[in-house]
Design goal:
5 helices, 171 residues, GcrA, elongated, DNA-binding
Length: 171
DNA sequence: CCCTGATTCGC
DNA sequence: GCGAATCAGG
């Protein structure tokens, strides 16, 4: 993935807004949170408060115990993006003139994907994250697939529940 | 175990 | 410059 001006701009904006690197990565799409953090550092705008104490790291010795294979630890590299939801989203947007509100990738919306469901359309497996102002007419619900462990999809579960752990963070 | 940002370093 | 790996920590 290429760091276009637009993407960098979005990155800076979201970072300035205080979003976490993983969330920024999720919204930009196609990049890992590490990529985002790395980019942020290179842009020299990492100074968002004191995050961690000045740790002095100097590990990384000789990982190659055998085989010259340049095997980077595959680990669990997950796309993160919900391809199904995204696909369905696009298809729906094409035939939904009403919900068409953003024209720019630099959307000021924090929620990357949503199915714009109405209250009636909610089921037990649809994310019930409110989208927008409940008093407004164009209010809708996220509607993406919600896990069995909550009323929200994984993304919104984090938005909803993360703040708790975020609060008691005061390094 | 989930997550956060920070840093190093091979590419 | 990029980002995976790794770290230190909540």
């Amino acid at each position: 993935m290429n760091w276009t001006d637009e993407r960098v701009e979005t990155l800076k904006k979201l970072w300035a807004e205080g979003l976490s690197a993983s969330q920024i990565a999720a919204q930009l799409g196609g990049v890992s949170r590490n990529a985002v953090i790395g980019k942020v550092h290179r842009l020299k705008l990492s100074s968002r408060g004191r995050a961690t104490s000045p740790r002095t790291r100097q590990k990384k010795a000789a990982p190659s115990t055998q085989g010259t294979t340049t095997t980077r630890r595959p680990r669990n590299t997950r796309p993160t993006t919900v391809s199904v939801g995204a696909t369905a989203l696009q298809a729906q947007f094409d035939e939904e003139p009403v919900a068409r509100t953003y024209l720019r990738p630099t959307a000021d919306v924090v929620v990357p994907i949503s199915r714009k469901l109405e209250l009636v359309q909610l089921t037990e497996t649809t994310c019930k994250w409110p989208n927008g102002d409940p008093l407004s007419e164009d209010f809708s619900f996220c509607g993406n697939e919600a896990g069995e462990n909550g009323p929200y999809c994984t993304y919104h579960s984090r938005l909803a529940y993360q703040p708790a752990s975020e609060r008691r963070r005061s390094r």
